[in-house]
Amino acid sequence: MRRRRLTVVLLGIIAALAIPALSGAAPIPGNTITPQGFFRFCADAQETIANVDSAKLTENGGDFTITNSLYKSLDDFVYSKSSVTTTTKKINDSQWTLYEDAQQTQPKLLRCKLRTGESFTAGAWPNGSTNNSGRFVVEPAYGFGSAGTGLSTNPSTDQQCRVVNQATIDNVWGSLSNGQKNSAVYNPTASNLPSANANTLVTVADTVVFDGPSWTPSVAAITTSGSVAQVGSRALVANSNSTGNPRFEGAHYCTLVAPEFLKRVILGQVAPS
Amino acid sequence: MIKTARKNRLTQRIALVIVGVLAATGVMTMTQQAAQASTITVPFQCSFNAPALNAVYDLGISDYAVTMTSPLVVEYGTSFSATYSFPAINPNLPFDITGAQVRAEPKIDVRKQSGSILFAVSSSTGAVSTAATISAGGAISAPGPVSVIVPTTTSTGSTQNFDIGDKLELIPDEFKYVFTATDDANLAGATVDCQPQSTSTYATRTTVNQTPPASPVSSCTAQTAGSTGGAGCATEQVLFASVAGGVLTQRAYTNTTPTSGSTSGATANANNSATSVNLGTVQTPLTTATVTGHINDIEVTDTRGGTFGWSLTATINNFTGDSGNSLNKSALKATPSCSISTTSNAYDYTQPTPTLLTGFNASLVAPGQSAGSAAQSFAGTVSLCTKNTDENLVSQSTGGLYFVQSTIELTLPPFLAADRYTTTLTITLT
Question: Which residues of B touch A40 (CB under 8 A)?
């Protein structure tokens, strides 16, 4: 009996230690209308998507930094590319927000240009590769080469964008009062609620495209299938050395629902769109 | 980049001062003279930087009207104060920034007239705004204008040394709004940083001057009995030469190019004086007919000796016929040309007939003239030529001779009543 209890305890410790390494989990901001949420949403999504070992990041004592460049103009965002800066060990992501209103007070959907986990250990582009132009020029490297080893705990398999959307659902639902939950129009839990059946707010598998023109067109943040609201994502995945155009490679792009819009849909203030 | 305003230079009367010395003596005074203000519009790429969050919000490239001031003249050997103001920037942030205190940090590039940028000067001494909340979607600004100190001399051999007579051009460079405090630690060190996308156009120009000694020395003793060598001694003579501003004039000269589309008949088909334009004779047409002729040539002479623009425009009334018929003024169109005069058409405006100026040098004429657009209808006022405030680098004025010509095209409707149609072309120089 004594031996058995000890075994259980040890397994529990191992599991607890393994959580960050297995998931590369990062806290997805529960909003995009605070400085932290606005400026870090895609940077935090990067950790999740590429299974980044959080311990490798500067805020946790490591030497890698995820920077985020936000763009006011969609055209500028389209020109921008995710990239790395090898000397300072920076992963450089891009972000653009679609708002419901012209005053830009109601975020609806975010577009994130991130790096794939596999790119972290890839090296420089082939000589003579075409770069971007003007202020969108990036360092001609997919990743950090051997210096990037271990930065991703699972570099061969990125997370789907839906994982970030699920975290957003969890964050938003967790922020609601019991009264709001009981009157919610959509319910992400497995239990029926007074106003919404179980599992009427779900994520669906990413729609994966492989080039920019296929990823850029407008996309719904939330769709419906019958009484179920579905949060999907249009993803672009282009691994290093896969297309012959290095400036487009090592890229993992996601469209992600904005927490504020998701909350308004859950509470029935706006329809899914 | 478009110049939107520039205060005209006040110095129509320029005094040239030469100080003759045998050896360097005396201490320069440090007076500064009247300031000039200039607002120019420049494309800037602005971004909101949040270093504590490792994030940059790229606000895109937009035109901003920025204002700079500097003295017209600065004493050689002294520094001077310039200012650089930037409009408020609205990054459309979706959150309030409480407890915000902001300071402006301007940076100015300095070059000699039309040269390359020599150095940049900046200032972090701008006043900090009182703590306030910048609401979501609100604009960010700071107290201004902020003074920037521009040196005119530094160490020997430095590219920042200037000579008497040099013109220093001040060009807007990076402009920052720096958050010195906010309630949110995530915004520590935040800035709004605007980078100019062009640094070719200056905003203000300051001339390095030298004030002549108030009491020139007229005698001195170089040596006393039995001594030789040494520094010697110096006397001073202050030389003055004055240039008085002249005039802005226009004079017409006969253009004898025959018309096309008409024949020489009752009205001839070429101008025979500087005050008449003959478009010739056509038979009442079966279909729309066009006659193309020329107004008489006009030469604009500007000897005002300062920084001034001008405009040459033309208007007509409806044509009226001897027999009472009429032709709308919109039937006439003009296509002007406007160029700096050459040695073959630079005429002395004081002479009633074309009299070429001896020794005319077109390279000393200020640029910046531009002809009005092609096929302008006389239904309204026609622009023949405009001159902006670009100066000639040698003359330092906007003066010169400019030759203006224009073809005119008269459209005659089919079956037009036979008559002798007349109108008066009024050409106005302002």
Answer: 53-55
Residue B176 sits in the same domain as residue B274: no
Tell me if residue A25 falls in helix, strand or coil.
coil
Task: Specify if B323 maps to a domain.
Answer: yes
Asked if B28 and B122 sit in the same domain, the reply is yes
Number of domains making up chain B: 2
| Crossing angle (nearest 10°) for helices A35-49 and A161-175 | 140
Distance (Å, whole) CA B112 – CA B107: 17
Residue from the list A67, A69, A76 with its beta carbon closest to the beta carbon of B60: A76
Closest-CA residue to B175 (of B244, B127, B109): B109
Chain A residues with CB under 8 Å of B95 CB are 33-35, 38
The residues spanned by each domain of chain A are 24-159+207-218+234-263
Evaluate whether residue B222 is within a structural domain. Answer: no
Give the position of tokens 């009205």: B267
Residues of chain A with Cβ-Cβ distance to B53 below 8 Å are: 35-36, 39-40, 68
Q: Residue B67 belongs to what domain range?
A: 23-209
Determine the residue type at B247: V
- Helices A161-175 and A259-266: crossing angle, nearest 10°? 60
Q: What is the per-residue DSSP string for A96-161?
A: EEEESSTTS-SEEEEEEEEE-SGGGG--BPPTT-----GGG---SBSS-GGGGTTTBSSTTSPPPH
One domain, residues B258 and B358? yes
**What CATH number is associated with residue B65?**
2.60.40
Q: Which tens digit of pLDDT belongs to each residue from B396-428?
A: 899 999 999 999 999 999 999 999 999 999 999
Closest residue in B to A65 (Cα–Cα):
B54
Question: How far is A205 from chain B, CA to nearest CA, in Å?
Answer: 29
With H, G, I as helix, E, B as strand and everything else as coil, classify residue B414: coil
Q: What is the pLDDT along chain A (273 residues), one digit of tens a residue?
A: 333 443 333 333 333 333 333 344 557 888 999 999 999 999 999 999 999 999 999 999 999 999 999 999 999 999 999 999 999 999 999 999 999 998 888 999 999 999 999 999 999 999 999 999 999 999 999 999 999 999 999 999 999 999 999 999 999 999 999 999 999 999 999 999 999 999 999 999 999 999 999 999 999 999 999 999 999 999 999 999 998 899 999 999 999 999 999 999 999 999 999
- Please state, in angstroms and rounded to a whole number, the distance separating the CA atoms of residues B38 and B342: 33
Buried b / exposed e along A179-195 (16+ C-beta atoms within 10 A): eebebbbbbbeeeebee
- Chain A contact for B133 (CB, 8 A cutoff): no
The answer on B396 and B264 residing in a single domain is yes
Instruction: Report ipTM (2 d.p.).
Output: 0.89
The reply to whether B184 touches chain A by the CB within 8 Å rule is yes
- CA–CA distance, A35 with B95 (Å, rounded to integer): 7
Task: Give pTM, 2 decimals.
Answer: 0.75
For residues B396-410, one letter each, b for 16 or more C-beta atoms within 10 angstroms of the residue's C-beta and e for the rest, the string is bbbbbbbbbbbbbbb
Nearest CB partner across the interface for B56, out of A35, A69, A104: A69
H-type helices in B308-415, by residue range? none
Q: How many separate helices (H) and strands (E) can be counted in chain B?
A: 0, 27
Closest B-chain CA to A38: B94
How many pairs of residues across A and B have Cβ atoms under 8 Å apart? 71
